[in-house]
Sequence to fold (200 residues):
Amino acid sequence: MDLLKRSQRHSLLRKNHKNKRGIELAVNFLVMLMLGIVIFAFGIRFAYKLFAQGNELTSDAYKQYSKQIDDLACASAEKVCLPTKTLTIDGTKPAIFGLVIENVLGNSETFLVEVREGKFVAKGSSEGADFNAETAKLQFLPKSDDPLSEITLQAKEKQSVGIIVQASGAAAGTYSFTVNVKRGLTDYVPTPFKIYVKVP
Fold:
């Protein structure tokens, strides 16, 4: 009887020991699985940040090269230069055109920048019609009564003037504006410039 009890106890201890080993293996597996998931998540986060920085660098490089191209485009002997003539805008960011004016006259002069509405061509249409900026839900600067429209330059001085167009709920299509630079009552350049704003 003692022998039977001993063998039963011994077999119970063996089973208990095997169960403990099984539980240890299961716990070790779960710990390793969790560590693997955490390391994998950190790897994905690192890769995402790396690619996001790459996009920012590309965007910065594009802006830098675009500015250099604009500077080169206006490096000629033109009195007035408008390197970018067409921009696409949505409702969040305005379109900003850079108008470069150089005083090639021998003394200090005041120049007036005039921006006027031109034609509107609706998306999918080829017919243009006159438009009013207020009714078309467009805002632009400088306007003729705005102090920003006047710029005084010394002889041989060159300066940029920003022309800003903002669309807030404007109809989709292309809006044209006429830009003219005057010195007093006379035109500083013989032909006015046209700029185009596309609203998708």
In short: The domain at 80-199 is CATH 2.60.40.10 (Immunoglobulin-like).
